[in-house]
Specification:
Length: 693
C-alpha cells in the first residue's frame, strides 16, 4: 500500500464578525472554479495532481477488494432487466414510452400511434447522443402539445449547465432547430406549441431568468428576471393547457407568475406576492386554481382554491383543511378529479377526490412502503397512474380509474437473477432522541439473519431541506443484505418524514438535532441487536454527507467506516462565500454567517471541517465530483486533508474524486454500479478489518 498524499499547508487567516479562523487548505479551491465547471481541463495543475494522487491512494488501499467489486457489479447488473421498458403513457393520438435496448447504458425515448405499437418512432436515443462523451446526462425531455416537436436538455460535463436541443418530428431528416445554451435544464413548450420557455443560469450557476423563444428562431425575449439571488426560478405549464407558470422561491418562501396559455407573449402577472414564510403551488382546473399551501399557519399544508381570473391571496378559500400530522407533499389535478399525496409517520398514501367531494385512498398494508404519482400528460382523463414499492417489494406501476376504483397492474419491476420477497423482512422501529423525540427507522434484512449484534449494519441518513428518504426497493442494497447485513434508514429531523415540523426541527438553530438523531438511531439499533458498536458503516450523500462529517467528530467509536458522497462538510466557508451557486438560497436553511454572529457560532459548532480535532477516526471514504456545482470538489478534498492530519487511529482516510462527473456521479445505468460497488466493498472491508474493542 502506498503512503497517503501529504497536502501542503498554506495557512489563511479569515476574520469575520469579529471571529477568526484558520484554513490551511483553502488553496484547493481554484479561483477559476466557475470556468472549471464548464471545462474541467482548466483545473489548476497542482490541484489536479493532488486529486489524482488521492485517487491513486484510495485505489491502493482498496486494491484487495478489486475482485469483490467486480462480483458486486455483476450481482447488481444481474438484478437489472437488460431490455427494460416502462409503461407507455397516453397523450392524444400517441403513446409515449421510455425503454432500454438490451445491455444499453442509456434510455431510448419513443412514441407510437394509438393502436399501432408496431409503428414506433424514436424521439431520442440517448446512447447515440452520449457517444464520445465521458459524461452525459439528460435532465428534461418534452414533446410539444401538438406532437410536432421534441426537445431535451443535455449536460456533457456534470456541471448541470444544460443545452436544449429541439427538433421537428415531421420526418427523420428534418433539420435541427437552433439550440439553447446556458440553461438550468428546465423548459416547457407553450400550449400553442409556438414558443419554448426556458430558464437561464447566471454566472454563479443560479437559475435566475425565464426567456421565451419562438420555435425556429435563435433569439430570446426576457420574460422574467429574479432580483433576489436567494431565489431560484423554474417554469412549467398546467396540465389543462390554460397557463404557463413561472415559479420562484427559496426553502421557505415562494411566488408564482402567470402567463395565459392562449397568449404566451403576454407579460407575466404575479398570482400572489411573496410573503416571507408563505409557500404555495398552483394547479389549474376548470375556471379556478387548486393551491397547495402552508397559508394561515398550515405547517403541514392544506389545499385551497381561487378563481383563475382573480388568483390573489385575498380570494383563497379552503378546500382540504389543515390537519396536523398529515403532511400533504404533492398534488395532481385533472378535469374531474384532484389527488394528493400525504405523509404520516414516515409512510405515504394517495387520496383521490372528485368534484362532488367524494374521496377514497390508496394505502398499502405494510410496515414501510412508498407510494408516488407516476405522472401523465392528459387532463381530460379518469386514469391515475401511481407507483408502489417497499424495501422488500419491487416497483409496481398501476393505473386506477378514479371513478370506478378499478385498478390495473401495468408493470412489475423484474429482477432477472431472482428475488423472493418472502425471504426478507422489513421493520419500522423507533429510536428515542436525547430530547425525547421518537425518530423512525426503517430496517431491511433477511429472515435468517440473526438479530443478536453479530450482523453488520449499513445505516443511511440525510436530514435536510425537508427531503424525506422514503423506504423504496433497491436492488443494490441486496448485495449487502444477502451477505448477512442489515440495511437501515434513519429518518432524522431535517427531513419531512413526520411532517413539516420534522423538517423545522432539524433546520437552522435546530440543525444539531439531525446529528444527535442519527446517533440515537445507531445506538437504538445496536441495543435491539441490529449491528453492534464498531460494526456499523454510516452512509450519507450531499447534505447527508454533512451528517457523516458531524457524527465522525461526535461519535467516531460507533463506526467501523463512514462513507460521505459529495459531502457538504465545509459548511462555514461555503455559507460565507456568496459567489457559490447555492449559498444565498441556503441561508434560510443554515443561517447567514456573513451577517449573523449567532449563525456563525452555530455553524462553527457543528461544521465537519471546523470541528476536526486530534482523535481516533474510523476508516472514511469521501467521494467528490470535479464539476459538482452543489458541493464543490474542494470540500471533501480539504476535509480529508485535515482529517488525515489529525487522525490518531491507524484507519485510512480516503478521497476519490470523479474527474469526469459532478454531483450525481457516473451516468449510465451500468457505469453507476461501479460507484455503488465501491461503497459496498468499502463497507465490507471496513468491518472485516476493524479490530473489535
Amino acid at each position: 500500500m502506498t503512503l497517503p498524499p501529504v497536502a501542503r499547508k498554506i495557512p489563511r487567516t479569515i476574520t469575520q464578525l469579529g471571529r477568526t479562523r484558520q484554513d490551511e487548505y483553502a488553496w484547493m479551491k481554484d479561483d477559476n472554479w466557475q470556468n472549471v465547471l464548464r471545462d474541467p481541463s482548466l483545473l489548476r495543475p497542482d490541484i489536479a495532481e493532488h486529486l489524482r494522487a488521492e485517487n491513486a491512494y484510495t485505489q491502493s488501499v482498496l486494491s484487495g477488494t478489486d475482485t469483490l467489486q467486480e462480483q458486486l457489479v455483476a450481482e447488481m447488473k444481474g438484478r437489472i432487466q437488460p431490455d427494460d421498458t416502462y409503461p407507455a403513457v397516453p397523450h392524444g393520438p400517441f403513446f409515449y414510452q421510455t425503454g432500454y435496448a438490451p445491455g444499453a447504458q442509456y434510455p431510448v425515448y419513443t412514441r407510437y400511434p394509438v393502436g399501432q405499437p408496431q409503428a414506433e418512432e424514436v424521439l431520442l436515443d440517448v446512447n447515440a447522443a452520449a457517444s464520445g462523451h465521458d459524461y452525459y446526462a439528460v435532465a428534461t425531455t418534452s414533446h410539444s402539445p401538438d406532437h410536432a416537436l421534441f426537445a431535451y436538455a443535455e449536460d456533457t460535463q456534470g456541471s448541470e449547465i444544460y443545452r436544449i436541443h429541439i427538433r421537428r418530428l415531421a420526418s427523420t431528416d428534418a433539420p435541427a432547430l437552433p439550440s439553447v445554451d446556458n440553461c438550468s435544464g428546465a423548459f416547457v413548450f407553450s400550449p400553442d406549441s409556438r414558443f419554448l420557455f426556458w430558464v437561464w443560469r447566471d454566472e454563479h450557476g443560479r437559475p435566475a431568468r425565464v426567456y421565451r423563444r419562438r420555435i425556429g428562431e435563435d433569439t430570446d425575449t426576457l420574460v422574467y428576471e429574479e432580483p433576489d439571488p436567494g431565489f431560484f426560478v423554474g417554469v412549467d405549464a398546467t396540465r389543462s393547457g390554460g397557463w404557463i407558470i413561472i415559479s420562484t422561491g427559496n426553502h421557505d418562501t415562494s411566488e408564482s407568475w402567470l402567463v395565459p396559455g392562449h397568449d404566451p407573449k403576454a407579460a407575466p402577472a404575479c398570482a400572489a406576492p411573496r410573503q416571507t414564510g408563505l409557500m404555495y403551488g398552483l394547479y389549474h382546473q376548470g375556471d379556478h386554481f387548486i393551491i397547495l399551501t402552508n397559508a394561515d399557519g398550515a405547517y403541514d399544508f392544506k389545499i385551497m382554491t381561487t378563481p383563475d381570473s382573480a388568483p390573489g391571496r385575498e380570494n383563497w378559500r379552503d378546500l382540504i383543511g389543515h390537519e396536523p400530522g398529515r403532511y400533504i407533499t404533492d398534488c395532481m389535478v385533472w378535469s374531474g378529479h384532484i389527488a394528493w399525496r400525504e405523509r404520516r409517520d414516515a409512510n405515504t398514501r394517495i387520496v383521490i377526490r372528485d368534484l362532488d367531494g367524494h374521496t377514497h385512498a390508496l394505502e398499502p398494508d405494510e410496515a414501510a412502503y412508498d407510494l408516488t404519482f407516476a405522472g401523465g400528460y392528459e387532463y381530460d382523463t379518469t386514469e391515475l397512474r401511481y407507483i408502489y414499492q417497499s424495501p422488500t417489494t419491487p416497483r409496481q406501476w398501476h393505473a386506477q380509474d378514479m371513478m370506478t376504483c378499478a385498478d390495473r397492474l401495468l408493470k412489475q419491476q423484474s429482477v432477472p437473477s431472482g428475488h423472493d420477497p418472502a425471504q426478507y423482512r422489513c421493520w419500522r422501529l423507533s429510536a428515542q432522541a436525547p430530547d425525547g423525540e421518537q425518530v423512525p427507522v426503517t430496517v431491511l434484512g433477511r429472515h435468517d439473519t440473526p438479530i443478536d449484534g453479530s450482523a453488520p449494519l449499513l445505516l443511511y441518513g440525510y436530514g435536510s431541506y425537508g427531503h424525506a428518504i422514503d423506504p423504496v426497493f433497491s436492488t443494490r442494497v441486496l448485495s449487502l443484505v444477502d451477505r448477512g447485513w442489515f440495511y437501515a434508514i434513519a429518518h432524522v429531523r431535517g427531513g419531512s418524514e413526520k411532517g413539516w415540523n420534522w423538517f423545522l426541527g432539524g433546520r437552522g438553530r435546530n440543525k444539531p438535532n439531525t446529528f444527535s438523531d442519527f446517533i440515537a438511531c445507531a445506538t437504538s439499533l445496536t441495543d435491539a441487536g441490529f449491528g453492534a458498536p464498531g460494526r456499523i458503516v454510516a452512509d450519507g450523500r450531499s447534505a447527508g454527507g454533512m451528517v457523516m462529517g458531524a457524527i465522525a467528530n461526535m461519535r467516531p467509536d460507533l463506526f467501523a467506516g463512514i462513507v460521505a458522497v459529495v459531502p457538504f462538510v465545509d459548511e462555514l466557508n461555503t455559507m460565507s462565500d456568496d459567489t457559490l451557486p447555492l449559498t444565498p438560497p441556503e441561508w434560510p436553511e443554515w443561517g447567514n454567517p456573513l451577517e449573523d454572529a449567532d449563525a456563525y457560532d452555530l455553524i462553527a459548532s457543528y461544521a465537519a471541517y471546523e470541528q476536526v480535532a486530534p482523535r481516533a477516526y474510523p476508516a472514511i471514504l469521501a467521494m467528490g465530483g470535479l464539476t459538482d456545482p452543489r458541493v464543490t470538489y474542494w470540500e471533501p478534498a480539504k476535509w480529508v486533508a485535515r482529517l488525515r492530519d489529525n487522525n490518531r487511529s491507524d484507519r485510512p482516510i480516503m478521497l476519490r474524486t470523479n474527474m469526469e462527473a459532478g454531483h450525481r456521479g457516473a451516468t449510465g445505468r451500468f457505469d453507476s454500479l461501479k460507484e455503488a460497488a465501491l461503497i459496498h466493498a468499502f463497507a465490507l472491508w471496513a468491518v472485516e478489518t476493524t479490530t473489535p474493542t
